[in-house]
Amino acid sequence: RNTRLLERAVDDAPDDGYLWYHLGRTRALAGDPVAALEALEGALSLCSDEDPWAIAALEEGARALRALEASGQALALLEQVEERYRTRPD
User: pTM of whole model > 0.85?
Assistant: First the structure.
């Protein structure tokens, strides 16, 4: 149900990165890392560094990559922002 609702919301507001982020999280929780990564890439392309959910989208994207056995890509993704977010406990 949530996936369908979010897909409709994204169709209605395709420039809303926050909706894309939640769609990616929902797809990841449903066990579909390919679709999750697609949505999270959309989210990241629309977010700014100031968006409070930006790092969570990166982390979720890295988890999706790991699920796809692309750990090297996941590490490369996170290394790009490691210094900026070093003080985050998560």
Answer: no
